[in-house]
Every structure is written in structure tokens, then in C-alpha cells.
């Protein structure tokens, strides 16, 4: 585990024991856009080609999951491409650099390849974060989010 910042944020591996909390955060963060249920996280965590990172805050009772991020390696041979599946941060902890910390760790895992993601076109904070680490918009996916019908940008970051 590694610590950063005065808020005592610890980054480590997401585990199956975290799946219920991830689903709870999904309902808060993505309520109008088909939030992932616990079983979706459990399935992702079973896959060998998907990597998940957790952000936890130290509390008197121990640690509490306040963020998560996942990325998948695509293809069977190098050069790999990667796709960020999700990044979520508890609304009470947003604006503290946790999303950037999660993203950095995902990108470190995928340093040898091109990384893609989709982001709602109206999610300005996320778009600015992605652009700040080298992502560029390469496409528009109309009605990408099934439930709300919201559009998404496809963004790409080439290997560093």
C-alpha cells in the first residue's frame, strides 16, 4: 500500500470484498446511466486481463473505500491497447486528487500501449482531467449511455 496527501488516502488493489461498496458508489455517481451492480464488479475482478485500483481513506474503524478505477488490456499480443472501464470517487471526497491518483495508477499499468475511454460529453471535470494527462478526443458516440441517452466522447492516449 502507498499513502499520499494529508487526507491519508491509501491506494491498493480492489478486492471482491469491495464489490458491494463499488455498487453503492455507482448508484450515487451514475444513477441515471445504468450503474454497475455488485455482480458486474465481481465479474471484472475475476478477469486476468482487467486491473482494478482502490482508493481508501483512513477512518477510526480502519479504512473506507472512497474510489475505484478499472482498466482492461485488449488483445493477446503486444502492442496492447487498453480501455478504461470506470473511475469513480465518492462525492464526499471529490476534488481532492483521488481521481487523478486512480487514473495515474491505471495508466502506469498500461504504459506500454494506447489507452481509450468513453466519457459523457457533459462531464467537464473528467474531460479536463483526461486532457491534462494527454488524452485527446477522437470521436463522438451518440446515445452511448443507454438509460439517459447521453452522448460520450471517445478519447485516446498514446504510449508515453
TrEMBL record:
Keyword Hydrolase tagged: no
Top-level EC class: transferase
Keyword field contains Acyltransferase: yes
Signal peptide location: none
Domain of life: Bacteria
UniProt keyword annotations, A-Z: Acyltransferase, Transferase
SUPFAM superfamilies cross-referenced by the UniProt entry: Acyl-CoA N-acyltransferases (Nat)
EC number: 2.3.1.128
Pfam families: Acetyltransf_1
InterPro entries per the UniProt record, alphabetical: AcTrfase_RimI/Ard1, Acyl_CoA_acyltransferase, GNAT_dom, MshD_Acetyltransferase
Gene Ontology molecular function, alphabetical: protein-N-terminal-alanine acetyltransferase activity
The protein's name: Ribosomal-protein-alanine acetyltransferase
GN (gene name): rimI
